[in-house]
Amino acid sequence: MIGNDIVDLDLASKESNWKRKGFLKKIFTINEQKLIASTEFPDVMVWNLWSRKEAAYKIYNRETGIRGFFPSQLECVYQNAILGSVLIKGRCYFTQSTIKNNTIYTIAVANKEHFRRIKSINPSIEILKKNGIPFIIDSNSMLEKPISITHHGKYWKGIQLID
Amino acid sequence: MNKEQTIAELKNIVKPYIANQEAFDTLTEDTDFINDLKINSANLVDVILDIEEKYDIIIDNEAMERMINVKAALEIIETKLSEKM
């Protein structure tokens, strides 16, 4: 299982005012709030953690079929700006984040070994959906392959797990 | 609580965050905030905070978890308002 999420930092700064009263408390755990308060670049930390939660949620949603809005229950274990994991209800997902060109992009996997098997998908490929979950038909095997897609502002990313 | 009135108030609250005007114009109880109105999930927090401010209620984590469509929002507003009485 895989999940991904991209944040366009310019757009996020226009769309969301994370300094709004109550905002951080609804999304982040006490430890995450401390992390945000103690960094030199809180904007980047807010959206870095957010993109990890979103990417991990996509896996959780697929594994459990549970859909809902519970960002503070997806708890980030922050190793550094790139690596970390997200814990939810006894499950653990691993995340790799990239900060570049004013975007933060996170890939989450249920199994660490899977980071090596992630492949980008061509945006022009036909994407189908089942219960809101995207997949493609592999052109060689004609089998359904689950994918994860994300877009924000002018950015789009799609990934699949290769065998 | 008058349901029609609350739906109208809710429409006013979500309006700044929607990205699908057609779904907004034809909004019903079954309208989904994310799938239909295409509200960005970070803005769902704003919707929740705006609802809290408008009705002077507190939406706890348990309620927030369900806050993904109009129907759930109406139920939560109604429950939290009745708890205030």
From TrEMBL, chain A:
- Gene Ontology MF terms: transferase activity
SUPFAM superfamilies assigned: 4'-phosphopantetheinyl transferase
| Superkingdom of origin | Bacteria
Keyword entries, A-Z: Transferase
Q: Which InterPro entries match?
A: 4-PPantetheinyl_Trfase_dom (IPR008278), 4-PPantetheinyl_Trfase_dom_sf (IPR037143)
Please give the Pfam families that the UniProt record associates with this protein. Answer: ACPS
The UniProt record lists the 4'-phosphopantetheinyl transferase domain at 2-66
Q: Write the protein's name.
A: 4'-phosphopantetheinyl transferase superfamily protein
Provenance organism: Flavobacterium tiangeerense
From TrEMBL, chain B:
What domain of life does the UniProt record list for this protein's source? Answer: Bacteria
Which residue range or ranges hold the Carrier domain?
1-81
InterPro entries in UniProt: ACP-like_sf, PP-bd_ACP
The residues forming a coiled coil are: none
Entry protein name: Acyl carrier protein
